[in-house]
Design a protein that fits this description.
The complex is a heterodimer. Chain A is built from one helix and six strands, in the order H-E-E-E-E-E-E. By secondary structure, chain A is mainly β. Chain B is built from eight helices and 22 strands. The longest helix of chain B has 19 residues. The chains are: A mainly beta, B alpha+beta. Strand 5 of chain A pairs antiparallel with strand 2 of chain B.
């Protein structure tokens, strides 16, 4: 994380606004252990029943589980449903 | 739900995509702004997914770039429905016929209902003169103007309202009550008897008393005169005329006879009945039954005509007429003389009380039960307020 990014994070915290509004980062929303919604993704790296890898720019999100299905995909959003057991973040 | 309807209007394709690089396929979809949903995996290298029809051409290029193959599984949505019914001319004609019927039904007046008065014929005539009749275009009706015109033209109408609801007009009418003719206090008038009787009390507030307590009088006799003689005489003026005012109570006698047959026929309904239906279009009637005759010797005939309505406010110009024949057996029944006398007496006293301005003081009865006729003769004495004003 460079100095500009760190400064932007500080500003967003002081202004009490979500950091994803002023930074080009993904928003990952997990609902219980069966739904994951990722906004501002950069593409799918791996697609499998038990493991899905999503490219989120400077971060790779690895979702593990079983019966994992790509529910929907659009230019900005990805919906993943299934029984999620583990989520890893790889920088 | 809204998203589903939007997608339905645009048209949805369910396709199967097969290939080794499905991740690449999805990434290219995302990159080209092609929305993909309802993705389900079938085997290692096959997915089924939904896309919009408008994206299908662009998807073909992506599929070839991602080295995949595709096939259409199902087509759904409005564009496919329209293309299917395009050649069904009867259906399209029916649709336009329904639309035209709906347009006619909701834009023209089909029923007028008049409530609040018995003079419906007069109201219908007045409405027709103001161009409100069956078949008039609703947009041409100015209810307020018509209402004002009718009220101004008819003195008998106190207030009326024309409520247009759907294709029906409900006309609510309040009639003016007839006001009694009141003679002005400045006009000289006598008080005359409106019945025949005997004066019980007389209290004159203005005018000259003609009769006194204990005097008898006939209907039309002057009881209090408006002519008052001056005592002593002032400057040759011997009399003056006033508006007579008096409270007069008098005894009035009534001799009334009422009769009742002691044997009457009552209706013993057998439970059998026939209902005949017919449809009325304007002045033409279409019978929905075969024979007009019935086998009953004694029957009640009830005819009811019902307007056919699509909703409480939308009606169609067709009426359903129901003729109902209910069979009965006439049964001869004897009325007990005591019950008959009691009924006659009660009815007589009730009707008399409604017509007199006073109380019944005395009454005597003579009962008679002969030749299957129950009769009662009553002599009734009442104490009533009498006297009406009559202009001199």
């Amino acid at each position: 994380m460079n100095k500009i990014e760190q400064k932007m994070i500080d500003i967003s915290r002081k202004l009490e606004v979500p950091t994803n509004l002023i930074r080009d980062v993904s928003k990952i929303e997990v609902i219980s252990n069966d739904t994951v919604i990722i906004e501002n993704h950069k593409g799918i790296l791996n697609l499998d029943d038990t493991e899905i890898h999503i490219n989120c720019g400077d971060l790779i999100v690895k979702i593990f589980g079983f019966n994992l299905v790509l529910g929907a995909i659009s230019q900005t959003d990805i919906l993943i449903v299934g029984n999620i057991t583990n989520i890893d973040f790889l920088r | 739900m809204i998203l589903y309807l939007l997608n339905f209007c645009k048209g949805v394709l369910k396709i199967s995509v097969t290939g080794a690089y499905l991740e690449r396929f999805f990434n290219l979809c995302a990159l080209n702004n092609i929305s993909v949903w309802n993705i389900s995996k079938h085997g290692l290298d096959e997915v089924h997914l939904n896309i919009l029809i408008e994206d299908y051409t662009r998807l073909q290029k992506i599929i070839s770039n991602a080295k995949c193959s595709s096939s259409v599984i199902k087509k759904s949505g409005l564009p496919y429905v329209l293309s299917k019914i395009k050649t069904r001319y009867a259906l399209i004609l029916g649709f336009f016929a329904v639309f035209a019927t709906y347009f006619v039904l909701t834009n023209y007046l089909f029923a007028i209902e008049v409530i609040g008065t018995d003079k419906t014929a007069m109201i219908y005539d007045a409405l027709e003169q103001n161009n409100i009749k069956i078949g008039t275009k609703l947009s041409e009706i100015n209810a307020n103007e018509v209402r004002n015109n009718i009220i101004l033209d008819n003195d008998e109408i106190l207030w009326m309202a024309i409520n247009l609801k759907g294709n029906m007009a409900t006309v609510e009418v309040y009639e003016r009550d007839e006001t009694p003719e009141i003679i002005s206090k400045d006009v000289a008038c006598d008080i005359i008897a409106d019945k025949t009787g005997l004066i019980d009390t007389i209290e004159v507030l203005a005018g000259e008393k003609v009769v006194d307590v204990g005097h008898t009088f006939l209907e039309g006799d002057i009881l209090v005169s408006s002519e008052v003689v001056n005592y002593p005489q002032v400057e040759d003026i011997t009399q003056r005329y006033v508006h007579s005012i008096a409270n007069i109570k008098a005894s009035i006698w009534y001799h009334i006879t009422r009769i009742l047959p002691s044997e009457i026929y009552s209706k013993d309904y057998t439970g059998a009945q026939i209902k005949n239906y017919s449809l009325i279009f304007g002045k033409k009637a279409i019978n929905l039954f075969k024979s007009t005759s019935n086998e009953y010797a004694f029957y009640d005939k009830i005819i009811s005509v019902r307007k056919i309505t699509l909703s409480p406010s939308v009606t169609i110009p067709i009426y359903l007429k129901t003729e109902q024949y209910i069979e009965y057996e006439p049964q001869l029944a004897n009325i007990n003389s005591d019950v008959g006398f009691s009924m006659l007496e009660q009815n007589l006293l009730k009707s008399l009380n409604e017509h007199i301005d006073g109380d019944i003081v005395k009454n005597s009865q003579i009962y008679n039960d002969e030749n299957n006729i129950i009769s009662i003769q009553m002599d009734i004495e009442t104490l009533e307020n009498i006297g009406v004003e009559k202009e001199r």
